[in-house]
Input
Amino acid sequence: VEAAAENLYRINPRLNLEIHPTRITPANCTHIYHAADILVEAFDMPEAKAELVQTWLQHYPERALVGGSGMAGFGSANTIVTANPFARLYICGDGDSDVTRSGSLCAARVAVAANHQAHAVIRLLLGLDPVKDAQNNNPLDSNPLYTGEEYAHNS
Output
């Protein structure tokens, strides 16, 4: 936690971070994240992932959880997808590869899955479905201040 905070402060020294070097457990999860509308899971251990998902969905079934599963190895990054197995649970990854079978993580492939998670959260915040695409799902299209003309000359 401290190392992540140091890196973030190097990027932006004006940040105001509140860090909590605490192990997340089913007993403290709801207390720590009670104010979160969306929870992003980024645990390494499958057991910890499962505990967090189960606890979150049990206590906050109306709130979204965006997790990651299946991003190990050097397989194609094109197999990383965002899925909605049930309720408000969104999983980003290939759903299959893990370090024990693949032997290692590849930072680029992990980054693809992490970016899927970030994009899922952005879509949720915009009121869009992270998995299903509507014909016209760009909230800027309905914004009278955005005409798209400023980008027309680049086409």
The CA atoms of residues 82 and 92 lie 4 Å apart. The radius of gyration is 18 Å.
